Structures are given as C-alpha cells and as structure tokens.
Amino acid sequence: MIVMIKKIRKVIINKGLLLGLVIASFTLSGCSFSLMAKYPRIITNQRIPLVSISYEFGEIEMVIPLEYVGLDPGRLTFEVYTGDSASQQLLVSVTTDPPNVMPLFLPQGTLDFQNPNNTLVIKMSNEDFDPLTLPFTGVKFGELRLPPILIEERRLIFTGRVRERSGESPIPDLDVSILNFGSIINTVYTDSTGNYKLSIPGRYKYVDDLSIIAGSDYQFAPARKRIQLPQTEYILDIGPSAELISLGNMYIIKKDQTHFRYFPHAGSNSSMLIGRGEVLAGQKVTGDRVYGFIEAEIGSGELILIDGWVDKLDLNLFLDGTLKDAHENRY
Amino acid sequence: MKIDIKKIIPLLLVSILIGQVRLSLVTIPRPANVYIDGEQIGRTPIDQYKIRPGEHQIQIIAKGYAPILYPMIINESKAVNLEFFLNPVYDIKFKTDHKDLTFKLNKEHEWNKQKIKLQIEAGDHELQVYRKGVLIDTRGITVDQPATIRYHLNKNPDDD
Known about the structure:
The structure holds 2 protein chains of 2 kinds.
Chain A: H1 2-34, E1 37-43, E2 50-56, E3 59-69, E4 76-82, E5 89-96, E6 101-107, E7 118-124, E8 132-136, E9 142-145, E10 149-152, E11 156-164, E12 175-180, E13 183-189, E14 195-200, E15 210-214, E16 223-226, E17 233-238, H2 242-245, E18 249-253, E19 258-261, E20 270-274, E21 279-286, E22 289-297, E23 303-311, E24 315-319, E25 322-325
Parallel strand pairs in A: 3-9, 3-10, 11-17
Antiparallel strand pairs in A: 3-6, 4-5, 4-7, 7-8, 11-14, 12-13, 12-15, 15-16, 18-21, 18-24, 19-20, 21-22, 22-23, 24-25
Chain B: H1 5-18, E1 21-28, E2 33-36, E3 39-43, E4 46-51, E5 54-61, E6 68-74, E7 79-85, E8 89-96, E9 101-105, E10 109-111, E11 115-121, E12 123-131, E13 134-143, E14 147-151
C-alpha cells in the first residue's frame, strides 16, 4: 500500500513538473509577444474609402385651388414659367376642363425659391375672360399650395363724371351705383373732381335693365341713366337746371310719392307722383299749396317743364344752400 | 424701417428647415460612430438626419476598422443616402533580427524596434528600410489577415 502511494506521488510530481514545463514554455513564448512594443497609431494606406452615394430628388407639387364666378370659362390652360421677363422659360403647359383644384408637378429645383420670379398663367377658352398672370415664389421641392384663384370673366368698366346740372360744377364724394332690376351690383364714390370709375362682372353685359345712378342720398333727386352697351362712359347731371332755378324759389320734395296736382283745391287730380329730392320752382302760394314747375327728362335726355301744385307740408324751401320747412315759413 | 423680430424668426426657421437635406448613412459592417464636421451625430445606421447642402467632413470610426475621413459636398436634394464599406484593421507582429535598422511604413509610420505590434489596415502598404538614415530597402506588404511579418535583409548594401 505504501509502495502504491509513493508511485502515485511520483507520477503526480513528474506530471506536475511536466505541467510546469508546459506552462513555463507557453508563458515565455506568449510573453515574448505580449511584452512587445505596440505602435500607437493605426496604420492606414490612405486609400479612398469605398462609398456608395445616392441622391433622392423630390418633385414640386403645385396645388392650385380655383373658384368660379359667373360665366363658364370653357377649357383652362395652365402655364408655369420661371425666370424674370428677360429670361422667362416655360416649364409646363396643361389644358383641362375647369377643375376645383389643379395639381401641377414639376421637377425639383426648377422654380426660383428665393424670389417671386415664377409666373402662373391661366388662360380661359371663353373670350369673355382675360388671362390671369400670377407671380409666385417657388419651393425647392414638396407641396406648393397657392391661395384660391378666382376665375371670373372680364369686368365691365364704367367711367364718367357727376356734376351739378345748373353750373356743371363737379360733385365730389358722391355715390355712384350700377343697378340691375333695382339691385345694386357695385357702388363707388366720385373723386375730388367728380369723376368715377366703376366695374361690374362681365356677365352683366348679357342682362337687360342695367342702370347707373348717382347721389342716392343727395339733397336733390338722384341722377339716373339707363346703360346702353357698348357705351361705358356716362355724364350724370344732378339737381335743377339753371332754367328751372330762374323760374322761382326752389322747393325740394320731402318724401317719395308726393302728389303733383293739376289744381290747388282739395280733391284735385294728380298729374303724377314725384319723388324725394325733386325740385319745384315755386311761383305762387295759395293756402297750403305751392304752384310751380318741375323738370322731367324724356327719352332723348331732353328736359321738359311740367307745372302743378304741391302741398306745403311736402316741401322744404331751399334757400342759400340750406333747407327750411316751407310750412313754417311764409314765402 | 422697423424690423419685427417675432415675424422674422419663424421665416428664418422655415427657410432653414426648407433648405435641409435628409441624410441616411449606413456602414458595412455596423455599428460605427459617425461625426459630421467634428460633431458626433450617432451610430450607424443613421436615418433622417437633417443636413444643410454644402461642404461637410464625414468621419466614421469603428473598432477593428480603419477610420474614414470623407470630405463631401452635399448637393441640393430631397435626400442623400450614403453607404460606407469599412476596411478592417489587422494585428500584425513585426520581427527582425537586424538591430540597426529603422522602418517606415507608408512613408509616415516609423519605428526601430526589432519586435513591434502594429495595427495595419487591410490592403497594400509600402515598407521602407533605413540604416543610419540611408534608404536600403523598399518592399510592398499586403495585409489581409492577422499575421507575423519577419523581415530579413536579403543582401548586404555594402556589396553594392
């Protein structure tokens, strides 16, 4: 037994020595590398790196909302230009039936995105429409939504002057309106020289009964003329003529539908009803009635004088540029 | 003329945002640290990074791979996609029995030890050998795996 133990111990010792030798040789060889100096930097060969580059170029989607008023514009042609007037270049042209929203697609980078040097032109096939030219600033890419564009036929433009009939002096700041069957289409005011410029949608050239009226709230009855196209310039005279003024004191009718009677007595027939602001050139007064002349324009534009009686209660006396109640004053 | 700053700032922000390009950057292999103009922007894959068009320095650093410094002009566009292929760096043990030599790799990296550990990018390199400041040998080295390079001077320059 003791011999066996000694043999085992000898083997263990021998193997230990062997193991020691193996570890020592491994350590020595390994340490010879691990103890090596190390160069501090990565050594590259400065080659150009292998790289794949791909670009994505977007597109510009122009979104053009459209609103239509009035006449049918027919087919629409959309043209987009870029560049200033000297170097304008057509980018796209599309003709289509009238859309509510028109999309247009352009390649990236085609529009000037710093200045409004791009132009959208919309042409309508209906000749009553003028082409629209809209400058805009572009984008590099992505959506470009324009504000809604109104498609409306060419407007009718009326010009002229409003003046006092008696001395032809201009009347400034007076309202001038175009009416169609009594409904106002547009109203402007005269400038300091009595001139006006007024526009209405072009579709009204196809309607009947267009009239122009000036001084709806003036001290004298408004001046009114029937519009007869293609005439677009109208001189509107307002107030009494010099001839009427010369006939007597000026009374102004207070209210609409005032009776203009043949005779002064109660129950006398009325030749017509006259409106507020009409001028009566008074020549005599009997009781509560005033006799005098009014002016009426006949078809040719000529003025005629008509005589008759008006109740004093319906009159104001126009004296020295001011109105006085005729009923309270004995003139 | 009065300038309303409150109105200008949103306009400037819009113009800045409009002027940017969407950058996507991947590396093979990944991940790698990415720096643009010296500022770390993240690790690959990079997606949806906004960058202004123009000149930029792109730097890519990944352990075990050669660093990349790539100057690039980003063009006006919606997006740019970059894919970098990284070149590995191998551990090379360099040994020589000659005691009086100085070695220079790629005309830049110099040592004079007989044993040295190097980290060398895969590919071709040029080794120059100097003795007392005189170039005595030039050799091409191709690195494509971890290896031990043993240098032996083939002939005695004194024989020339």
